[in-house]
TrEMBL record:
Pfam families from the UniProt entry: Ank, Ank_2, Ank_5, PGG
Protein's UniProt name: PGG domain-containing protein
Membrane topology: Multi-pass membrane protein
Ranges of biased composition (kind: Low complexity): 1-21
Length: 663
């Protein structure tokens, strides 16, 4: 038999290894309230509560009975909103009024959190009746009691949007609205951030009552300042115009208050693009429009950053000199809109006096808006700026570079896609009269390493060849199969021309055969040339030639395959239904328009050329051929030549097909 010492000794600590840490001992909480007593208190059943007390002679008294969380019977009754039971408990055990649970919540905290305004009023009245001189100051030990989070019962009522409970608390102690929580949130700020207009109005009335009582112990001015130095107006402008009006009527000086980042409420409005709130603030006072934040940004810069063109227009209507405001880097709002690629802002001000005044302003680095648009490779904005005659394209920045210089430097000098934004921008500038900076061309080439291909060029050949060869093989396979499955079938045996195509006499059938043949030849040649272009054993110069030929051949094969499908469908369907045949043909030709949406970007060049040079400008050549050859890839001499060259490929292919079909 084991000894008593062995029976009462604690269990030995388990051994641990390096990979298994010692477990932390569990905290044991022993409730002193029986389950029946807790259920009765939560249900608000007075008879059941009395019965549970009488049934357990060993039960603790009312003031000491507590749950595992330290909640007393009054806590449970208050959380459930049971005013009658709470009144009974207060009569039997008045000390429960100041009791706190493990989170340091009083019963008033739980009643406010639950929105039990009757219980809140009861608890406040009980505290007032027990005080020697009933007044708001005598209630402060209860109403201003804070929990572990540093919050009063009013914070809980406001957070839960329990207006009746908050009204009862504020009426008992008006200065309570200025007590900040542990996170620095006063109730008024919390209500505004939550968008509760009724709560804000009620708390403002309490603020005025606190001013009338001339309270000194609690600084009521703190009631409008939240975390991060944000005022209640900072929060209100983001959620409600009506709330903003109420706050401005209460304290107009809030309009000039800044948070820890130096931002006024107008900065916040500019960040969300609320035009109605912007007008409301500016009608009160326009001075915040001229206040910059800690980064040197004015509200108009914030609006430009977010892309709110209409809001900027309204801001300029109230403050006509907003276009003159510069941030810490010397940039106006047009610079900012371009840096953040907000083309709608630029479009909104095209043709306006504001754009004319800002278009050629240089920032601290000497960059105009056009310089920044070129750096960001935004062809839409470059097109909009170049379509404005007041924009000067030949201004040099602090590096001595013009916009065209930057466009040249941004263009890939090796293998590149000729419809990339950088190339479109280069064409837009070169074809509208922009010039390079005045320096020796050889020095320009050497200084910026122009024309020197990187070591990745050979990898580009291999990757492009691998991608294109899949398409070329697919076209070859389809067109090869089409020869043995001709539309309309073959003449049956017994006929002098047995085995011949039935529809061979029709012109559309002949055109189909020629289109299929041209597609097969083009795709086959493209496959062969791509094999050479992707081979590492072929000299890079020859690989570039093979790559160029394969791309042209593949384009021709694709066009031929598309028209071949249309002709084949027409041959089969037209005898039965001409309308369906025509619809199929037209639908097929849509692939020619949609196969390369990047081609539509050439439309960005039309308006700048027309505005600056007229329609004849499309035929003018500005950059000498020697310069184009050394500095650019795929630019071309002028817009008309590029357009006609792209059209020629399509026209040649279809002309070849339909002319040969006449044989």
């Amino acid at each position: 038999m084991a000894s008593p010492e062995a029976e009462t000794s604690p269990p030995s600590t388990p051994t641990t290894t390096a990979s298994c840490p010692t477990p932390r001992p569990l905290a044991v909480v022993r409730p002193t309230m029986s389950p029946e007593l807790l259920r009765a208190a939560r249900a608000g059943d007075e008879r059941r509560l009395v019965k549970a007390l009488l049934a357990d002679p060993a039960a603790p008294d009312l003031e000491t009975a507590a749950t595992a969380g330290g909640n007393t019977l009054l806590h449970a009754a208050a959380a459930g909103g049971h005013a009658e039971l709470a009144s009974l408990l207060l009569r039997r055990a008045p000390g429960l009024l100041a009791a706190r649970n493990a989170a340091l919540d009083t019963p008033l905290h739980l009643a406010a959190r639950a929105g039990a305004h009757k219980v809140v009023a009861l608890l406040v009245a009980s505290s007032s009746s027990s005080a020697s001189s009933p007044s708001s100051s005598s209630l402060r030990p209860l109403t201003r009691a804070t929990n572990r989070r540093g919050e009063t019962a009013l914070h809980d009522a406001v957070r839960g949007a329990h207006e009746a409970a908050a009204r009862a608390l504020a009426a008992a102690d008006p200065g309570l609205v200025a007590v900040c929580g542990g996170a620095g949130d006063p109730p008024l700020y919390m209500a505004a951030a939550a968008g509760s207009l009724g709560m804000v109005r009620m708390l403002l009335r309490s603020y005025r009552d606190a001013e009338d009582e001339d309270e000194e112990e609690v600084p009521v001015s703190r009631s409008f300042t939240g975390p991060g130095g944000r005022t209640v107006l900072h929060a209100a402008v983001l959620v409600s115009n009506e709330m903003t009006k109420e706050l401005l009527q209460w304290k107009p000086t809030l309009l000039k208050e800044v948070d820890d980042t130096g931002s006024t409420a107008l900065h916040y409005v500019a960040s969300v693009g609320n035009i109605s709130t912007l007008k409301l603030l500016l009608r009160r006072d326009t001075s915040p429009a001229y206040v910059s934040d800690s980064n040197g940004s004015f509200p108009v810069h914030i609006a430009a950053k977010m892309g709110y063109g209409q809001l900027i227009y309204e801001l300029c209507r109230f403050c006509p000199d907003c276009d003159e405001l510069l941030d810490s880097r010397g940039r106006n709002f047009l610079h900012i809109a371009i840096v953040h690629k907000k083309w709608k802002v630029v479009w909104h001000f095209c043709g306006t006096a504001e754009l004319g005044r800002m278009a050629n302003v240089m920032d601290s680095e000497g960059n105009t808006p056009l310089h920044l648009a070129v750096k960001n490779a935004d062809q839409m904005i470059v097109s909009l700026l170049m379509a404005t005659k007041g924009v000067l394209p030949n201004i040099v920045n602090n590096q001595g570079l013009t916009a065209l210089d930057l466009a040249v430097l941004a263009t890939d000098k090796g293998i590149s896609y000729t419809l990339n934004p950088q190339v479109i921008i280069l064409r837009c500038l070169a074809w509208t009269g922009a010039v390079l900076s005045p320096r020796r061309l050889d020095h320009f080439i050497d200084e910026f390493s122009i024309g020197k291909s990187s070591g990745d060029e050979l990898k580009k050949f291999t990757n492009i060849a691998q991608n294109l060869i899949v398409g070329s093989v697919l076209v070859s396979t389809v067109t090869f199969t089409a020869v043995f499955t001709l539309p309309g079938g073959y003449i049956s045996d017994g006929h002098p021309h047995a085995g011949a195509p039935i529809l061979s006499h029709r012109y559309t059938f002949k055109a189909f055969v020629m289109a299929n043949t041209l597609a097969f030849v083009g795709s086959t040649l493209s496959t062969i040339w791509l094999t050479y272009a992707g081979s590492e054993h072929v000299h890079p110069t020859l690989r570039a030639v093979y790559m160029f030929l394969s791309v042209i051949s593949m384009e021709q094969a694709t066009r031929s395959m598309v028209i071949g499908f249309a002709l084949g469908a027409y041959v089969v369907l037209s005898p039965a239904n001409d309308r369906i045949a025509i619809v199929v043909c037209l639908s097929t030709f849509m692939t020619l328009l949609l196969r390369n949406p990047s081609s539509w970007q050439l439309g960005f060049l039309i308006m700048p050329i027309k505005r600056r040079l007229g329609w004849r400008g499309a035929f003018k050549t500005h950059l000498p051929e020697e310069t184009r050859g050394r500095l650019t890839v795929g630019v071309g001499s002028n817009f008309a030549r590029l357009f006609l060259r792209r059209m020629f490929g399509t026209i040649f292919t279809y002309s070849f097909i339909f002319l040969l079909a006449l044989l």
